[in-house]
Amino acid sequence: MKKWVKRWAIGIVLPGILVLSACGNNSDSNTTASSANDGIKERTIKTGIGNSEAHPQGQGMNKFKELVEEKSGGKMKVQNFFDATLGDDLKMTEALQAGTQEVTTPSTSPLVGMVPEYGMLDFPFVFNTEKEADAILDGKVGKQLLERLPEQGLVGLGYWENGFRQLTNSKHAVKTAEDFKGLKVRTMQNEVHLDAFEKLGANPTPMAFSEVFTALESGTVDGQENPMPTIVTQKYNEVQSHLSLTKHVYTPFVFLVSKKFWDGLSEEEQKIMREAAEEAGKFQRDLNRSENEKAIKELEKAGMKINEVSDQEREKMKEIIKPVNDKFAEKIGANLVDEMMTELAKVRGK
Ligand code: TK8
Predict the structure, then answer these.
(1) All structural domains of the chain
(2) Where is the signal peptide (predicted)?
(3) Mean pLDDT of 316-338
(4) Going by CA atoms, what residue is nearest to atom 6 of ligand 1?
């Protein structure tokens, strides 16, 4: 309910904000250097995310705001919008391309229409630990993926964490690969996820994030999959009875800036943005990881039935899904996928 009310309000307020921020970005022309803050102009940076302010992603955005405002001596202002009030991941990313919004930190999964290579991060069961995910994302492979963004009108300043995804549903505990059969599951708008759930015998429906709660509540779908902090902050336990710790895939968030906006920034301003995104990202990842364990306890208390999935069953699921990964590896470019697997082997060897 609350979300809809907010969205209505935004529908009225937003056009005004757009006009204001457009003026703010264009009105002041470059002046010559004369003080320490020369390269920094008065600016308003509008950001939006799908999750709530309480989610580690929301807390990370608040940290970003704090850092940008501090580093710019209060000249650069950050205005954060939560709960998809500016739209879902895809819509906000398109707004960045158009230059009507400055920042968003979407999951990489819905961006595969723009950067198909991001699909390789969607392969289920590729990462086993957060450490492995960090090594790939912060390393050469992650960097190469960021380099695909500018041609799409986007600048990527690094990766934050969404996390390992777990399955919830209203029907039964999912302990084995067979238990997926017939379950209607909401997936992100991403072909790899769609095909993987189909292979497992589930009935997947791709859907934007802000529609998930209502779809679960009305029974349009039986279940969904998301990392623990999202399951807790979206209160999915109110409409889902089972949580199965499938840990089937890791999803990052990518910190995106509108290239149109970025290109108009001075080097000093770009540096402030870069540093703030990175520092807030470290804070966000730590918080996300500590929330994981807390969330499980909280949901158990709230009455959710929680089950582990054995390594043996996870291996079976991995085997069933393998043809999907192979098909997309071919499509995406086997070289980059090979590079990721080689890097992962190195991390595991350490
Ligand atoms: C938030 C999304 C979300 C993602 C999803 O905007 O869609 O399920 O996991 O957290 O990026």
Answers:
(1) 41-349 (3.40.190.170)
(2) 1-24
(3) 95
(4) 50
